Amino acid sequence: MQLILPTSRQLLHLDREFYCFIHFSLNTFTDKEWGFGDESPSIFNPTQFDADQIVLTAKAAGMKGLILTCKHHDGFCLWPSRYTEHSVKNSPFRDGKGDVVLELSQACRRAGLEFGVYLSPWDRNHPDYGTPAYIDYYRAQLRELLTQYGEIFQIWFDGANGGDGWYGGANEQRKIDPTVYYDWENTWQIVRELQPNAVIFSDVGPDVRWVGNERGVAGNPCWYTIFDNGCAPGVANEHNLNSGNLDGDKFHIPECDVSIRPGWFYHETQDDQVRSLKNLIDLYFHSVGRGATFNLNLPPDRRGLIHENDVAALKQFKAHFDATFNNNLAQDATVSNHNEDTVWYFDYDLSKIGNCNVVELREDLVYGQRIIKWELEAFLYGAWQPVVSAESVGYKRLIRFAPICATKFRVKIINCKAEPMLCGFGLFFEPSIDTDDKKVETEYIKPDKAEKVDSRTIVLSFNNPTNIRGIKYLPKLDNVVSKYHIIFADESGKAVKECSGEFGNMLNNPWPQVVFCAGVFSSITFKAVDFCVGSVMSVDDVAILK
């Protein structure tokens, strides 16, 4: 098989391993995931914004970098761009003289973290989106970000490519061909010109690829090499992105992106839904532990701070991480290796005995990803006993197993593309995790009657007028609503309130979303206007908030 080698910038990026995303914008104040583009900059007003608190929270968790959503799909810019009025310069933040990008980039420098930027290709505010003029606008803003804020370690381009939007008041749907519209090769060349050491992220690299889901889980196994023929940001096979291709012709580092909460932006209703210690540690094993990088989103709240619950979860994560990985039982092992026909053996004689339940392998990727299949064996009861068997190694491979105690271990390379270049071996003991997570459950009101009118409409009704706070949509993986229309009616059946909208980012992240509409009602009619997956509503897809 052909050996595809990484670039020097890719090798440096793998060493970053764990960094964070910061989703912070107008959506923080509208309680949305995807803004429509018609929101006023006047609502952006984080009165206690503290860039150092955000950055130091990430650093204390062991992260090495921070990527800021400088512009999300609503087009609002967190820096005073000279190319649009839809930015912080027309907000109350710092009396219109603020620059979130500058403050966070400077805080990163002070703390020793690297700084990265995300600039959404889709812009639901700009009147020229969908025309060639928008590409000039987009590239001009990209140049601003790459020239005004110092060294950038990663530029993040996603695959959200057009749809409904405000578009300067047109209020219409605009479709583009993502394979040609952005002229990515020339757009990426701007990055190479202005930030030559930065890695470029998109579905198809060219340096770092999306892992194909927003659950933070890489494939098992996960190969760096991949075929990307005919693909573009927003146009790629998610399974292929997740696992790569053993014999692929491009070297793209997989990045696992996931939020510490169900949503990417801050929502007060999710304060009790921050990921547990066990879940965060599992995510690390399923991302970095499979050779990928781990990009964990930390959404600042409306104050402009990382919420106390998120901070507490990250402290727990770091304490458990240190307790596990600060003591490598194989650090002083005597190492030898030999091969028998096509099988390679790497032997490790430990200087002291101790319980272990995690193995770490590392491959010298300067020479490419070579190891295909391997086993770990321990010398127990006078013979070599199998412990774990797996495929792929890469930058780092972490696998848990039942605790054992031995002084001799060996790694058996059963299949490889070329002579294996194993450069790291570790044995660790991971303490147990108390999984008794006591979370406050949201209180729901059970309707007296739940009726399915047709495949897209359900009606929830009460025998007596009832005071409610709103509804929560609970998507199922095989049926996911993207747009809705809700009618709240009184005893006579007359509509008292109506609301329409969309559940943003439901295709990649189908999590429960809330529509607040407080009042006293006798019935609620939920209509699915459009689906991103499936086409059928169920009576248990909607819960009523008390």
If you had to describe this structure to a student in words, what would you say it looks like?
With 546 residues, the chain is α/β, with parallel strands linked by helices. Helix content is 18%, strand content 34%. The chain is built from 9 helices and 27 strands. The chain has an 8-stranded parallel β-barrel with strand order 1-2-3-4-7-8-11-12, surrounded by 4 helices. A hairpin with a 6-residue loop joins strand 5 (162-165) and strand 6. Helix 3 (51-60) packs across helix 4, helix 5 runs parallel beside helix 6 (184-194) and helix 8 (277-286) packs across helix 9 (308-325). The mean pLDDT is 94.
Task: Provide a concise account of the structure shown.
With 546 residues, the chain is of the alpha/beta class. It contains 9 helices and 27 strands.
Q: Largest sheet, described in full? A: 8 strands, parallel, barrel
In which order are the strands of the major sheet placed? 1-2-3-4-7-8-11-12
Mean pLDDT: 94
Query: In percent, how helical is the residue content?
Result: 10-25%
- Overall, the morphology is globular
Distance between the termini: 60 Å
Radius of gyration: 25 Å
In oligomeric terms, what are we looking at? Answer: single chain
Beta-strand percentage range: 25-35%
Enumerate the spans where pLDDT stays under 50 for 5 or more consecutive residues.
none
Instruction: Indicate the structural class.
Output: alpha/beta
Number of helices: 9
Number of strands: 27
